[in-house]
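To: structure subgroup
Subject: Chain for Friday's discussion

All,

I'm putting the inputs and outputs inline so they're searchable in the archive.
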Amino acid sequence: MDRSEKQELITSLHETLKGAELVVVTRQSGLTVAEVTDLRSRMRAAGAGYRVTKNRLARRALEGTKFTGLSTLLTGPTALAYSKDPVSAAKVATTFAKDNDKLTIVGGVMGDQVLDPDGIQALASLPSLNELRAMLIGMLQTPATRIASVLQAPAGQLARVFNAYATKEGGAS
């Protein structure tokens, strides 16, 4: 890799990280190409990304971003998982790490706060942005459904009373 290719990689990673809300540092030792490909596809499906880079290049890409606190975590065979959603990269990384002991979570940064592996685990247990939206919509729809059923109940009771009178009078004739 020559100097211009390295600079392109640094610039590309820097631009990607500027738009991210969460970066998770993982240590991968012994992952096969198929396993890394599987992890990348899971990340893409969750709206996140996963990048294996040289630590020196990653440190240079982190300069000027809110993730400069990650520089101390970049030792050994590491990779960066990142996402715009502050939960999805952590969820996918921790789920994959549970299934595969070759991947360990070193730490991460959300906003300006550096997180340890326990912090990433706690973050992964939170619902994602889409799950929160679904819960909010469900909570908003519940009162409307209850109001509609309460308003329909008297009309239904009135119809049953009329039906009872009609069947009573029909049986008496």
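Points worth raising on Friday:
The beta strands are 22-28, 48-51, 78-83, 103-110, 113-115.
The radius of gyration is 27 Å.

D.
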